[in-house]
Specification:
Blueprint: E1 3-21, E2 24-38, E3 43-48, H1 61-77, H2 84-91, H3 98-116, H4 120-124, E4 130-132, E5 134-137, H5 143-156, E6 160-164, H6 171-181, E7 187-190, H7 200-204, E8 214-215, H8 223-232, E9 237-239, H9 246-254, E10 260-263, H10 271-283, E11 288-290, H11 297-307, E12 339-341, H12 354-360
Parallel strand pairs: 5-6, 6-7, 7-8, 8-9, 9-10, 10-11
Antiparallel strand pairs: 1-2, 2-3, 4-12
The structure holds N-succinyl methionine and magnesium ion.
């Protein structure tokens, strides 16, 4: 294909409640949306999941917008024979920018698949028609507030609870949730790099709660540190921020730093790389699950397709739209018996609601 036009817009959606992690509190979501249109008139949509500030990753909304406008889009627009499969090669000379690159590749892939009448699920190799949903629970001011929140999500039907932790909000909240909701609750924790190699004894105390996994306890560059921790504790270590490519995933698995992987397509440059990580992990007997970055329906739709691949054997952070948004950019994704249906239509299988997108555009 040859790109004719690219529309970039930032929308600003309020969150239904603040979401606090070890690196900050979010009360709203600014999303950079991308629409590509080809010379033959077919179009594709994607959202760039970078946050407003570079706190989860070095990327941030305005930075991505600049990177796209200044470098990435001109490179793609100069090609006559653009395909989703060659986007990453074309953009490779520009270092970093995985989230910006992922958004562009995804929009091109959406256009390509809409044109051929193929769904993301089919293209990526999905084997399921619905996927089990977990939910990520932020850090709260008080334990009663946490109990009430977890209880609400379980009543909604979520099949797995992930608690955000940080020093000072770890042992006690995890103990209380485990004791209150019982040994059968699928429970895991996510530190977003809040600990150091000096905290291994503290993290070992969590072993008694039979957690599914502990996600990214220490800093992302310290893959060897995660391997040491994995030897020291019985809770399985799961890398998130550290896994930036299939190559890093292969190495992290080989040195024993990760026995489960959180795959976020945007963190690794797109869905094509995400499938490679899925395959590397599968070959090594390492299960994976699909992470989330507070996607609106446009991004959520594609994540659900990915989460339907065979080695995604744990519930993901693929929650319903209502977890974050009162009004979503698409028809809302809903929970049915703790599962969400994988879209089946061409491309990502959903369309943005123009009126909503326009209303929230800033
Ligand atoms: O989309 O439900 C979601 C977010 C899940 O906790 C979540 N994501 O490290 O896994 C993670 C975090 C990153 C974003 S926190 C603002
Ligand atoms: Mg995480």
């Amino acid at each position: 294909m040859k790109l004719k036009e690219i529309e970039l817009r930032i929308i600003h959606l309020p969150l239904v409640r603040p979401f606090r992690t070890s690196f900050g509190t979010q009360t709203s979501r600014k999303v950079l949306m991308v629409k590509v249109t080809n010379e033959n008139g077919t179009f594709g949509w994607a959202e760039c999941v970078a946050m407003s500030e570079p706190l989860y990753s070095p990327e941030y909304v305005i930075g991505c917008l600049d990177l796209m406008k200044r470098f990435l889009i001109p490179a793609l627009k100069s090609k006559q024979d653009l395909t989703a499969e060659n986007v990453s090669t074309i953009l490779k000379p520009f270092l970093g920018g995985q989230m910006a690159k992922a958004a562009l590749e995804t929009a091109v892939l959406d256009a390509q698949l809409r044109a051929s009448g193929t769904s993301f699920a089919t293209y990526l190799g999905a084997t399921k028609t619905k996927v089990p949903a977990g939910v990520s629970v932020g850090i709260m001011d008080t334990l009663p507030e946490l109990m009430k929140t977890v209880e609400g999500y379980l009543a909604d039907g979520y099949l797995r609870i992930k608690l955000k932790i940080e020093p000072g909000w770890d042992y006690e909240p995890v103990k209380l949730v485990r004791e209150t909701f019982g040994p059968d609750l699928l429970l895991q924790v996510d530190a977003n790099t809040a600990y150091t190699r000096d905290d291994f004894d503290l993290l070992k105390r969590l072993d008694e709660f039979n957690l599914l996994l502990i996600e990214q306890p220490i800093e992302e560059e310290d893959i060897l540190g995660h391997a040491r921790l994995a030897e020291y504790i019985t809770t399985p270590v799961c890398l998130d921020e550290s896994i930036v490519s299939a190559g890093v995933a292969r190495d992290a698995i080989e040195i024993g730093a990760t026995s489960i992987i959180n795959i976020k397509p945007a963190r690794v440059g797109g869905y094509i790389e995400a499938v490679k990580i899925h395959n590397v992990a599968q070959a090594a007997g390492i299960p994976v699950w699909c992470g989330g970055l507070l996607e609106t329906g446009i991004g959520r739709a594609a994540n659900l397709a990915l989460a339907a691949l065979p080695n995604f054997t744990l519930p993901g952070d693929t929650s319903a739209s209502a977890r974050y948004f009162e009004t979503d950019t698409t028809e809302p994704f809903v929970l049915v018996d703790g599962h969400i249906d994988v879209p089946t239509g061409p491309g990502i299988g959903v369309d943005p609601i123009r009126e909503v997108v326009d209303r929230f555009t800033v």
